[in-house]
Design the sequence.
């Protein structure tokens, strides 16, 4: 995923790429291609790249482990400069100094980093996912399991016991 910048005229240039997760070296959680839309603004002092990245991530639900797919979008920007002194004015994470004579910029590393950093930390298949029973492992979205019922019954027994004790004391 390279952009030829040698001989590029000053002004704004637009690019779009689609790249496979294999080409980008992404882990298997990213099953689909990655779409990149970028603009490159060239001035006498720098090249400013603004990119938006979109793909899909496939991860297990944190509660019930069902695989869920969700779309992922992220943006990043890079100032490519030729002079070290120019770099001082810019946020260090957003600047790259180009070696003299470099005529190509390669987006692959930055796109890969951006996608990986956008990886969601919390994943639930739906807000009210009931998860798995911690005792038998049944997916509670699909119905109630035996252990849950005995747990509930147990609570009722306790309550009945209390009630009968109370009534004994009252009487
Ligand atoms: Zn779930
Ligand atoms: Zn259970």
Sequence:
């Amino acid at each position: 995923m390279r952009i030829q910048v040698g001989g590029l005229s000053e002004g704004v240039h637009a690019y779009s790429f689609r790249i496979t997760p294999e080409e980008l070296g992404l882990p298997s959680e990213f099953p689909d291609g990655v779409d990149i839309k970028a603009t490159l603004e060239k001035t006498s002092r720098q090249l400013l790249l603004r990119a938006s990245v979109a793909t899909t991530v496939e991860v297990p639900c944190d509660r019930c482990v069902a695989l869920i797919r969700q779309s992922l979008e992220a943006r990043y920007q890079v100032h490519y400069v030729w002079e070290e002194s120019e770099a001082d004015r810019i946020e260090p994470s957003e600047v790259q100094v180009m070696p003299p004579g470099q005529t190509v910029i390669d987006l692959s590393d930055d796109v890969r980093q951006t996608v990986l950093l956008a990886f969601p930390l919390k994943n639930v298949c739906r807000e009210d996912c009931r998860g798995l029973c911690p005792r038998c492992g049944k997916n509670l979205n699909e119905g109630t399991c035996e252990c849950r019922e005995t747990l509930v019954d147990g609570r009722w027994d306790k309550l009945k016991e209390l009630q009968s004790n109370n009534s004994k004391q009252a009487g």
Summary: The chain has two domains: 2-117, 140-170. The CA atoms of residues 59 and 67 lie 5 Å apart. Strands lie at 2-4, 11-19, 34-42, 46-60, 67-81, 95-97, 104-106.
